[in-house]
Amino acid sequence: MRIPSLSAAAALMAVAASAVRAEEATTTAPIPACTAISSTSNGAFFDLRPDVAKAPATDKSTRRSITKDYHARGYDYGSNFTINICEPVVAPVKDVVGVSKALWGNVSAYYTHKDKVYSIGSSSLDLRSRGRKLVLRYGDGSPCEAASKPNKSARDQKPATGDKDKGKDTVRRKSTVISFLCDRDSGNAQAAFSFVGTDPDECAYFFEARSAHACAQAEPHRRGNVGPGSVFGLILVIAVLVYVIGGVCYNRTVAHARGWRQLPNYSLWAGIGSFVTVRSSAHPTKPGLPIHSRRGS
């Protein structure tokens, strides 16, 4: 006679477990932009949003500490660089070489050479974790130069147009790779950029950025996620349901109980209820009347 009740309880637990898995799968929120989770198994969280430079806000409640673009000296390259993190540069640019006017507002890194603005990448929110480093890549910059003459700098050449029969999509464009390093000891409130180098074709640019926000931290709870409290609550509800329904099935089929006596451990709960009732009736109190104690003679 116990087999039906046990099988019913097992079926209930299986349904509840599947409901928990479905809840976790449907309520997990996507990772915010300009953040990353460690590629290793330690589950570290990286958030570079405080380092993003944005235009000054008119509202005092939304003012940000970083309102200007980052700069990196080019040293022997001959030009300095202006960069922002994840988003376009704050100071607007125009007349960008090889980039349509509609895309000038997406430029996230550029340099100026002989009064010409060259984009080395458009904005990207795809922050990646590779080991202990964070990597951010910008693409779709100005066309790479065709260094056809060895006596001229690649920046002085005309942009490569590619083969006519292959269309414009074959044009190689400048790109940028930024490697972020954890730096808590610098004392700077914002990231510090350093130009590392470029490839011989001046098509790929490499930078290193040090920031305290590039250090691993605990991932904050996101709205829509099933947190530890929610998981514990679901488990508690499932346990109570299994206890009540399983006990009712057992008492009804095995003990042939009816009414309230079908509840599991009915005598225990009834005794607790009687105890509370007796205690409350033994000391009746009326509002407004003082309570006198009886003293022995």
From TrEMBL:
Membrane spanning stretches: 231-251
Cellular location(s): Endomembrane system
Residues annotated as domain MRH: 41-217
Keywords of the record: Disulfide bond, Glycoprotein, Membrane, Receptor, Signal, Transmembrane, Transmembrane helix, Transport
Start and end residues of each stretch annotated as Disordered: 141-171
Biased composition (Basic and acidic residues): 153-171
PROSITE patterns per the UniProt record, alphabetical: MRH (PS51914)
Main location: membrane
Signal peptide: 1-22
Biological processes per GO annotation: vacuolar transport
Superkingdom classification of source: Eukaryota
Pfam family, one: Man-6-P_recep
GO cellular component terms given for this protein: endosome membrane; Golgi membrane; late endosome
PANTHER family assigned: MANNOSE 6-PHOSPHATE RECEPTOR-LIKE PROTEIN 1, MANNOSE-6-PHOSPHATE RECEPTOR FAMILY MEMBER
Record protein name field: Mannose-6-phosphate receptor, binding protein
Lineage: Eukaryota, Fungi, Dikarya, Ascomycota, Pezizomycotina
